[in-house]
Design goal:
heterodimer; A: about 270 residues; mainly beta; five-stranded antiparallel beta sheet; about 45% strand; B: about 1100 residues; alpha+beta; 38 strands; DNA polymerase (chain B); Proliferating cell nuclear antigen (chain A)
Chain lengths: ~270, ~1100
């Protein structure tokens, strides 16, 4: 028996929007500690990891660890039927091949049940081991989204370099080049508008912008984003989900001679 | 070396390096010239005898060389042809032989035979074999090249001699370097008639211009085309007639010689050549007028005992490079020699570089140096003296490679492979391009007196296959596979020991054996000789030329009988546009569960041409129609508006050719029924087939706008009559077979195509439909002009009509039992689809039509889709192949196979596909929004790197359309029923082995029972209770996969012919290969799972 009650239903909607751009079908894993998902995008260049800890739910019951295969487009279709301030409950019986989404309006005068057929997805569970990063940049998520969007109109790839001076995002395209430098800035009134750079070693890595732009779909989930970089490791773009967990995106750096980003990199 | 004609491996168009001019010494005698041939335009090429000969001292050098290698020589002498009988030696016997090849050379004209001429002349050489198996080289003298022009009115004998002088002068200007004493031998006035248009007068004067050498026909034609100044007539340009006929063909036509027939030279009419120039046993000179050419009938339809050599070479390539003759040695040559008509080869040997362990039944001939290998092969050719040389891709790879290799090694005496003493083989690059066969690059290797028959070329011509590698062709026709060893492994085998080289030799022998098997199985010798006999062209033309030369040859022969001449129409600016093609009645799509009768027109287009007397010589131009004032009952006005006279006024020659072809076919078929001897049957069957093909190609000849003599008036008239007849038939059927007319049901024409009409008479049984079909055919045939005839042949029951040109049904010719399942235009036959589609559609049709089990078919589709999504599908089923017809830059839009070929070239140029090859690929997963062409990948690369397949692509772009087409007439909601539902809800997302993010990600443990995440162990706490059950399941899974893999492995070992050696094969065409690889991978994964249980 599984029963998860989330008061902020809109959160779940935002989570779905943040993932479905990259992943079509995935297994959601439920255990006593929380509700999670790990999946690669179809070109297996990027990986998404989601965690919603059990203590963030109003009510969390999970008798046994289970994996539920879902088509994210279909989940999104279901969740679109929930109001923005609805309370969402996810329910599933042991051994059942369906999952139920229950939407309650805040005033409790409207209760809707949506039952969705589950999929049987045979895939491996993947995870990226925790590591020490050479540089960690924390910045407002909206700024990061804008940088990615602006650069994508000029080039296909972004070079992110972190030095003592700050963090530089640059690109190069047919029509020209672009460089955006952000300096450490902690003197603002609101902590969420600060740009904080922790650097042990300077680092400069290249990434495909199309994936970065997919990651920024998670912007509504958090005001800040943390970008952790290390040479020879995938970048981690992390959005914290208020008091519940996170959504992390991992992206393998592009290797210099690899000119075709759409091809699986070997 | 593997034979991968159609695909990647070898046979790359030569890289520029292989084109470097040979060392100067050879340059003079082995010219490598570039010649591009535009759509079937072939010209004569004068080869001067002395140019091709070596100086005397070189020959003695060769002789010395042979002596030094006595050991080989004694071995070779066993293979020589039977010795000549006394009667031949004393020249007291007529020489009767079957000719195989005819060419000509330029030499001094024969003093004894032609006492009155001198200077260089063309000498026809006929090569052939006598009944006893003696080789013959017959040199024919006295035949002169000529052509016609129409004689300007008012030209008298004096004018002609002046004209002669002027023309001679112009020719001399154009050919300053020539030493010929007289260019224009003579000009005669003859009475002839042009084939074009109906003419009332019997004939008109033409000038026959006889020139000294064959190439002068072309240069003289050029002069006359451009115009020439003649006193009293001013500047005049001439239309030439029959000036585009190759000299050898001209000779054959004038002497009534057809390809592959028997020729007799009576006693006393031939002279043995004093100093022989060829290696043939019988070499003699004679006059062309003394030849007796036998019509291929009765005794003369048999085949002489030709010697057929099938060979294959192996080269040791370097890693990552395609073998190049400038670097890579020839390490083995395998040979099989078979006598035509015998079942088993009488010589089997393999020449190897370095020692080689012995092979049962094969003469293994190891040599220490490559030079010895090459020379041993040359000696084999010389001693065995094969008439026909066959192999797979020999013309593009093996022969040129041997010759270029010998140049690199400086073996000047190697390329003497022809029948002419001391004459070196010549290599030319050619591009053959024809509308029908597409463009092919190839090399032309001239081996004088021996016919080359490259099975690859024959396959590409005659069959549409998804792959033309020797392996897949053999699998298709002989149900026999061979191992496909990657060329990089060949070098390893060669550098091993006698055993590994033996392995290579076995492989090489198989490659030499398979072409011979294919030749026998497909009756190529019979079919091609018969085709040559029917159409009258030399056998070598059949492979190197297109269709139109065959029709032209027949036309020229017939025209000669009728005293007609054929104009040489220049095809520049012949954009006469197109004309309306055949008609297709609208298809009433549906699944018909009542018998459908099919009414066919027998040989529709030839019949129309005969019935309405359509020909060049019966066509009346609109102006002539007014001028000639023909009576309306004497002409036919065709539905397309052209006018042709009826046969009572003038019989056309095309109808006459067709009548002969069809009546000859009837005769051949009747004889075939009587024939008992299997060889005789083979000849007759080949003949009737050749006759049928020839009859059908006449229409195409008139419609080929870039052909030799296009006449769209004829072809458009033919199709217009065809359209009219289909409509007429439909009307008659639907008017007559009605309930009003006393029949049980109203007949309905549900579909009609070019030459057939499908009728539903409404009756429930096959027998009843057959009776009505016969009745209708007879009734309607009576309304047509003979020989147009509607035939009732078959009933379809049930019949699934999808759209025009797409249908399937069970085919009944007798009411008791259906003959077969017949499909047209459905994915079972299209080769661009992957095998999955083909199998799926086939199985569904089988279930629907034969088992009449529609729910079963639906379930089958669902299971297949589920298997696909669960990644249980064999990769070989997902491979799509497309022909690479030009290089990437020439394609306007990006195509998956072209892009892949480009990417593969970057990865490894040696294995990448080339123009003309078919490229196999699969579609893999990539980033969202990536185009299909970015997602194509080499199947082997996919297997090796475990790249996930884009199953959605296959579901949506490959199988959905054909399936929906098939099921839409049957099911109401086909798309919903088949393509969505529970069976699509189980999928598998496989993890690539080491690409992208997988370089960093770690697999996490999950429960074997329920897949939930766990931190350690094998099972989650919940599944602990089922431990025993799950363990058993894993164990049995592993053992099942082990058994499967073991069986596949054994299968491959059997295919390679040795059960105690490793399998090396990496054949892209072999389904077993993919299954073996996949089983191996699955087994390894399952074992890993098992290992997690460490009790």
């Amino acid at each position: 028996m599984l029963e998860l009650r989330l008061v902020q239903g809109s959160l779940l909607k935002k989570v779905l929007e943040a993932i479905k751009e990259l992943v079509n079908d995935a297994n959601f894993d439920c255990s006593a500690t929380g509700f999670s998902l790990q999946a690669m995008d179809s070109s297996h260049v990027a990986l998404v990891a989601l965690l919603l800890r059990s203590d963030g739910f109003e009510h969390y019951r999970c008798d046994r660890n289970i994996s539920m295969g879902m088509n994210l487009n279909n989940v999104s279709k279901m969740l679109r039927c929930a109001g923005n301030d609805d309370i969402i409950t996810i329910k599933a019986d042991d051994g059942s091949d369906t999952v139920t989404f229950m939407f309650e309006s805040p005033t409790q005068d409207r209760i809707a049940d949506f039952e969705m057929k589950l999929m049987d997805i045979d895939s491996e569970h993947l995870g990226i081991p925790e590591a020490e990063y050479h540089a960690i940049v924390r910045m407002p998520s909206a700024d990061f989204a804008r940088i990615c969007k602006d650069l994508a109109s000029i080039g296909d790839t972004v070079v992110i370099s972190v030095t003592k001076e700050g963090v530089k995002f640059s690109t190069r395209g047919d029509i020209g080049t672009a460089n955006i430098v952000l300096r450490q800035n902690t003197s603002v009134d609101k902590p969420e508008e600060a740009t904080v750079i922790e650097m042990n070693e300077p680092v400069s890595l290249t990434f495909a912008l199309r994936y970065m732009n997919s990651f920024t779909r998670a912007t509504p989930l958090s005001n800040t984003v943390t970008i952790s970089l290390s040479s020879e490791l995938p970048v981690v773009v992390e959005y914290k989900i208020a008091e519940m967990g996170y959504i992390r995106y991992y992206l393998a750096p592009k290797i210099e001679e690899d000119e075709d980003e759409t091809k699986p990199q070997v | 070396m593997n034979h991968n004609g159609g695909s990647a491996r070898k046979r790359r168009p030569p890289t520029p390096t292989s084109h470097q001019p040979p060392p100067t010494k050879q340059k003079a005698t082995t010219p490598t010239t570039q010649q591009t041939l535009v759509d079937e335009e072939f010209v004569d090429e004068d080869v001067f005898l002395d140019e091709t000969l070596l100086p005397e001292d070189e020959e003695s050098l060769i002789l010395r060389d042979i002596e030094q290698r006595q050991a080989v020589a004694s071995r070779l002498s066993k293979w020589a042809r039977p010795p000549l009988s006394q009667a031949y030696v004393s020249q007291s016997q007529s020489i009767l032989f079957q000719q195989l090849d005819i060419d000509y050379v330029i030499g001094e004209s024969h003093r004894e035979l032609l006492p009155r001429s001198s200077g260089p002349a063309a000498i026809i050489r006929i090569f052939g074999v006598t009944r006893e198996g003696h080789s013959v080289c017959c040199k024919v003298h006295g035949f002169e090249p000529y052509f016609y022009i129409s004689c300007p009115s008012g030209m008298g004998p004096d004018d002609i001699s002046r004209f002669h002088q002027v023309l001679e002068g112009r020719m001399r200007e154009a050919n300053r370097n020539s030493k010929v004493p007289q260019f224009i031998r003579r000009i005669e006035m003859v009475q002839k008639k042009s084939i074009m248009y109906y003419q009332q007068q019997k004939s008109q004067p033409f000038l026959k211009i006889v020139v000294a050498l064959p190439t002068m026909v072309t240069s003289c034609r050029g002069i006359l085309d451009r115009g020439i100044q003649i006193d009293g007539f001013g500047m005049k340009s001439f239309m030439t007639y029959e000036s585009n006929v190759l000299f050898a063909l001209r000779f054959m036509i004038d002497c009534n010689v057809v390809g592959g027939n028997w020729i007799e030279v009576p006693v006393g009419k031939y002279r043995k050549t004093a100093k022989t120039l060829s290696y043939c046993q019988l070499e003699f000179d004679c006059l062309y007028s003394d030849l007796i050419s036998h019509h291929p009938e009765g005794e003369y339809s048999k085949m002489a005992p030709f010697r057929i050599l099938s060979f294959d070479i192996e080269c040791a390539g370097r890693k990552g490079h395609f073998p190049e003759p400038t670097h890579d040695p020839v390490i083995q040559v395998a040979n099989l020699v078979t006598l035509q008509g015998e079942k088993q080869p009488f010589i089997r040997n393999v020449m190897t570089l370095k020692s080689c362990a012995s092979i049962v039944g094969v003469d293994v001939m190891p040599f220490e140096t490559e030079r010895e290998v090459l020379l041993a092969w040359r000696d084999l050719i010389r001693e065995v003296d094969p008439d026909i040389i066959i192999g797979y891709n020999i013309c593009k790879f093996d022969l040129p490679y041997l010759i270029e290799r010998s140049q690199t090694l400086g073996i000047a005496e190697f390329p003497i492979l022809g029948r002419i003493r001391n004459s070196r083989v010549r290599v030319k690059d050619t591009t053959f391009s024809s509308r029908q066969y597409g463009t092919r690059e190839s090399k032309e290797v001239t081996v004088e007196g021996r016919v080359q028959f490259d099975l690859l070329q024959a396959m590409q011509r005659d069959y549409k296959l998804s792959s033309y590698s020797l392996n897949s062709v053999s699998a298709h026709f002989l149900s026999e596979q061979k191992e496909d060893v990657h060329h990089s492994i060949i070098s390893d085998l060669q550098n091993g020991n006698a055993e590994t080289r033996r392995r290579l030799a076995v492989y090489c022998l198989k490659d030499a054996y398979l072409p011979q098997r294919l030749l026998d199985k497909l009756m190529y010798i019979f079919n091609y000789v018969e085709m040559a006999r029917v159409t009258g062209v030399p056998i070598s033309f059949l492979l190197s030329r297109g269709q139109s030369i065959k029709v032209l040859s027949q036309l020229l022969r017939k025209a000669k009988q009728k005293n007609l001449v054929i104009p040489n129409v220049k095809h520049a600016g012949s954009e006469q546009g197109t004309y309306e093609g055949a008609t297709v009645l609208e298809a009433k799509a549906g699944f018909y569960e009542k018998p459908i009768a099919t009414l066919d027109f027998a040989s529709l287009y030839p019949s129309i041409m005969m019935a309405y007397n359509l020909c060049y010589s019966t066509l009346v131009t609109p102006e002539d129609a007014r001028k000639l004032n023909l009576a309306p009952e004497c002409v036919n006005k065709t539905p397309s508006g052209e006018m042709f006279v009826k046969s009572n006024l003038q019989k056309g020659i095309l109808p006459e050719i067709l009548e002969e072809l069809l009546s000859a076919r009837k005769r051949a078929k009747a004889d075939l029924k009587e024939a008992k001897d299997p060889l005789e049957k083979a000849v007759l069957d080949g003949r009737q087939l050749a006759l049928k093909i020839s009859a059908n190609s006449v229409y195409g000849f008139t419609g080929a706008t870039v052909g030799q003599l296009p006449c769209l008036e004829i072809s458009s008239s033919v199709t217009s009559y065809g359209r009219q007849m289909i409509e007429h038939t439909k009307k008659l059927v639907e008017d007559k077979f009605t309930t009003v007319g006393g029949y049980e049901h109203n007949a309905e024409v549900i579909y009609g195509d070019t030459d057939s009409v499908m009728v539903q008479f409404g009756v429930p049984t096959v027998a009843a439909a057959m009776n009505l079909g016969r009745e209708a055919a007879e009734y309607i045939s009576a309304t047509f002009i003979k020989p147009i005839k509607l035939e009732f042949e078959k009933v379809y029951y049930p019949y699934l009509l999808i759209s025009k040109k797409r249908y399937a049904g069970l085919f009944w010719t007798n009411p008791e039992k259906f003959d077969k399942m017949d499909t047209k235009g459905i994915e079972t036959v299209r080769r661009d689809n992957c095998l999955l589609v083909k199998n799926l559609v086939n199985e569904c049709l089988h279930k629907i039509l034969i088992d009449r089990d529609i729910p079963g078919a639906v379930q089958y589709v669902k299971n297949t889709i589920s298997d696909l999504l669960m990644n249980r599908m064999d990769l070989s089923l997902l491979v799509i192949t497309k022909g690479l017809t030009k290089t990437g830059d020439d394609y306007e839009v990006k195509a998956a196979h072209v892009e892949l070929a480009e990417r593969m070239r970057k990865r490894d140029a040696a294995t990448a596909p080339n123009v003309g090859d078919r490229v196999p690929y699969v579609i893999v997963k990539a980033a969202k929004g990536a185009k299909a062409y970015e997602r194509s990948e080499d199947p082997i690369y996919v297997l090796e790197n475990n790249i996930p397949i884009d199953t959605q692509y296959y579901l949506e772009n490959q199988i959905s359309k054909p399936l929906l087409r098939l099921f839409e007439p049957i099911l109401k909601n086909a798309s919903k029923e088949l393509l969505s539902g529970d069976h699509t809800r189980s999928i598998s997302i496989s993890t690539p082995s080491n690409s992208g993010i997988m370089k960093f990600a770690k697999r996490q443990l999950s429960c074997i029972g329920c897949k939930a995440l766990i931190s350690n162990g094998t099972l989650c706490s919940h599944c602990k209770g089922r431990e025993a059950e799950l363990y058993c399941k894993t164990v049995s899974q592993v053992s099942e996969l082990e058994v499967l893999f073991g069986r596949l492995w054994t299968q491959c070992q059997e295919c390679q012919g040795s059960l105690h050696q490793d399998v090396l094969c990496t054949s892209r065409d072999c389904p077993i290969f993919y299954r073996r690889k996949k089983a191996q991978k699955d087994m390894a994964e399952a074992k890993q799972q098992l290992d997690r249980w460490n009790f």
